[in-house]
């Protein structure tokens, strides 16, 4: 039993080590393959962490919003949504029809929407009254309109692969390159919308360009409380109990489950043929009588053939013959 127990412990330890290594390797692979998203939490090249910190350091009332859009409080005047619908795996929770209806009501009632995405889908897009972008090659963008959004801005640098065609006349063009309009501003109801087709220009990598930073600040700041929508990127204020646990705890839980499974298997599944157990050392009354008789025989010094029972049998036989 001890050898079997030691074997089970060795197997459990090996499984635990394998699970730990598997969890570590999987986490490393996911970290390597995980793309940089346009989130204010992301510190990668596309992340908006630098922009968020700059705005906060400059005294802008900025915060992160991690709930469905209809729960946004009425104090928020400016809502920033980045890469929210048509970026495939880059968007964790794309906006649906209900979100689009809410955005239309939000802007119509005086809200301000900064929609930063590459592929705008016109009437099918969540941003109200926005145009349709086309894929077009183009380099850096220059400012067209001279207003509060482009003040001090000359050249916006960064990857720009989509743009609104110049044939679309709705709104005021803010930025453009040879491929089309990169940023437009327009009124909708009592509110306004700023649509920008190059999310990367505000990312951590390209925000080092002073004009990029200045344009981002002009677009976002100066219009009340600003909220960056992080719900579309998979962040939520009410995560699951499993989701809030760190990765080492996940590995520890899987190890504990593996040990429990191995213990159950070892206790219920035989791995060898059964073997007879040793008979218990239990003596009967006959063994006791035999031992007493042997002691009595030895104490009287008689030879083995002069046993008491033997002489009693001879005497009984003689009496029987006499009676006959």
Describe what you observe in this structure:
- The chain is of the alpha/beta class.
- The protein has three domains: 2-31 and 244-268; 35-233, Class I glutamine amidotransferase (GATase) domain (Rossmann fold, 3-Layer(aba) Sandwich); 285-323, no CATH class.
- It is built from seven helices and eleven strands.
- The protein has helices at 2-33, 49-57, 97-108, 210-220, 247-268, 285-299, 308-323, and strands at 62-65, 76-82, 112-116, 134-135, 141-143, 155-156, 162-163, 172-177, 180-188, 191-196, 225-229.
- A hairpin with a 2-residue loop joins strand 8 (172-177) and strand 9 (180-188).
- Helix 1 (2-33) packs antiparallel against helix 5 (247-268).
- The longest helix is centred in the first third of the chain and has 32 residues, at 2-33.
- The chain starts with a helix and ends with a helix.
- Residues 28-32 have low confidence and may be disordered.
Keywords:
rod-shaped, 324 residues, Rossmann fold, 7 helices, two-stranded antiparallel sheet, 9-stranded mixed sheet, 3 domains, alpha/beta, single chain
Look at the helices and sheets and give the structural class. alpha/beta
Mean pLDDT: 82
Tell me the domain tally: 3
Categorize the overall geometry. rod-shaped
Strand order, largest beta sheet = 1-11-2-3-10-9-8-5-6
Name of the CATH class of the largest domain: Alpha Beta
Alpha carbon gap, first and last residue? 68 Å
CATH-level-4 superfamily name of the largest domain: Class I glutamine amidotransferase (GATase) domain
Total number of beta strands: 11
Largest sheet: 9 strands, mixed
CATH topology of the largest domain: Rossmann fold
Radius of gyration: 43 Å
Q: What letter string, H or E per element, gives the SSE order?
A: HHEEHEEEEEEEEHEHHH
The percentage helix is 25-40%
Give the low-pLDDT segments: 28-32
Do you know the CATH architecture of the largest domain? 3-Layer(aba) Sandwich
Quaternary state reads: single chain
Number of helices: 7
- Strand residues, percent: 15-25%
